[in-house]
Amino acid sequence: MNRTLLEQQRQTLDEAITGVFTDATAEDHHDPGELTLSGLGGCTRKAALQLAGHTPTDDDSHREQRASHLGRATHDWFLPRLAARLGRELTMIEHDVILPVRGLHIRGRLDLATLAVGAGLLLDLKTYGYDQADPGQPPSRARLMQVWGYTMGLRAQGYSIETVAILPMSRIHGGTDGLWLAEFGPQEEAIVDARIRDLIHHAKAPFFAPRDGHRGPGLDMECDSCPFRSQCWPGAQPAQAAQVRTDADVVNHAVRYAEAAAQEGAWKEEKTYHATALHRTRPGPYEADGYEVEIKTTGGGKRLNQSQAKALLAENGLPVPMTTDRESRRAVVKRRPLA
Ligand code: SF4
User: Fold this and answer.
1) For residue range 43-84, what is the model confidence (pLDDT) as tens digits?
2) Residue 164 to residue 124: CA distance in whole angstroms
């Protein structure tokens, strides 16, 4: 087969693969202007804009959104099997709920609820890749509000749920180490109610609502997919333009970059030291000084041996495949001598 034909085949395949994802985005299209239970605990400004009925300006219906579709495929494959294993009296998968609260009706779709007398369980599956935060961390406000909102919606339909669970699952290796479980009761209901009360308040002047620390398109994943991003960060093209307008902005970010880089180095060293100290510790629970610690075994998986792979390619007269790094910036900071 000649090289031109191979190139044509590659291009055809690349286009078809991209098409699979863009078609899925189009099929999955929902109204970006609607506040749903999945957005209840996310960016306050975004939720306030949705609640105020603001018209979205940024259309993502053409995007590939590969990670999201792969996450959905995992849901479709995994949840029915999990439900079958649990074998409860009644199970709902991908079930629509509506949370009626303070005159609003907020829609959502829960992942899995299994109902048994006194043991109703609602579970939310969250798949993640290399790009997301440590799944072992306590659930964020966004995740808690979502799962609590579903629970209240299901209760409004007359079903009883006593326990909620968030199950992070790695899209890389299927790990589920961060499973989180908690009881659901009046305290959680009150927190959701207070959040809705705040959002109703912010919806009166949504562009004054807090951005909750989000850093703008290009710098923050939630902003990157936000349907209001160009109104919230006017003129942010390219993304960094919103952050850096003057020389003082450049210096500010460069100094903070250098400080963060220095701390990162020190913390990495500290982490390596303690990890080495724990290296041969027996896995299991430990307790002292008011702390409970679980030592777990990680690693042991296979990964590419780069030097052997390079040597093999060289032995067979094949070039080492190379890719070009994305251009980035590094700040070198010096203090100006005092005059
Ligand atoms: S662009 Fe970012 S900060 Fe602004 S509303 Fe959207 S998510 Fe919030």
Assistant:
1) 999 999 999 999 999 988 888 888 889 999 999 999 999 999
2) 8
| Distance from residue 229's CA to the centre of ligand 1 (Å) | 6
What are the pocket residues of ligand 1 if the criterion is a CB atom closer than 6 Å to any ligand atom?
Answer: 43, 45-46, 211, 214, 222-223, 226, 228-229, 232-233
pTM, two decimal places: 0.70
Distance CA 38, CA 229 (A): 18
CB neighbour class for 156 (10 Å; exposed up to 12, middle 13-18, buried from 19): middle
Counting as low any pLDDT under 50, the low residues of the chain are: 238
Domain 31-212 has CATH 1.10.10.10: no
Return the exposure string of 199-229: e unless at least 16 CB atoms fall within 10 Å of the residue's CB, then b. bbebbeebeebebeebbbbbebebbbebbbb
Name the DSSP class of 319. P
